[in-house]
Amino acid sequence: MKRSPELLRLADSVLLPGFEGRRPPDWLRRRLGEGLSGVVLFSRNVGTPSQLAELTAGLRAERPDAVIGIDEETGDVTRLEAHTGSSRPGNYALGVVDDVSLTEEIARGLGADLAAAGINVNFAPAADVNSNPGNPVIGLRSFGADPALVARHTAAWVRGLQAAGVAACAKHFPGHGDTAVDSHHGLPGVNASLEELHDVELRPFRAAIAEGVRMVMTGHLLVGAYDPELPATLSPHILTDLLRREMGFDGVTITDAIEMAAVTERYGIGGASARAVAAGADLICVGGENSDDAVVATIREAIADAVTEGLLSEERLADAARRVGELAAWSASSRSEQPAADLGTAEDHHVAVGLAAARRAVRVTRRPGADPLPLVTAPHVVELSPRMNLAIEKDMPWGVGEPLSKLLPGTTVARLEQENAGTALGEAALLPAADRPLVVVVRDAHRHAWQTAALDRLLAARPDAVVVEMGLPGRTDLGAVHIATHGAARVCGQAAAEVITGLLEP
Question: Which residues on neighbouring strands pair with residue 167, listed in sequence order?
Answer without folding.
Answer: 121
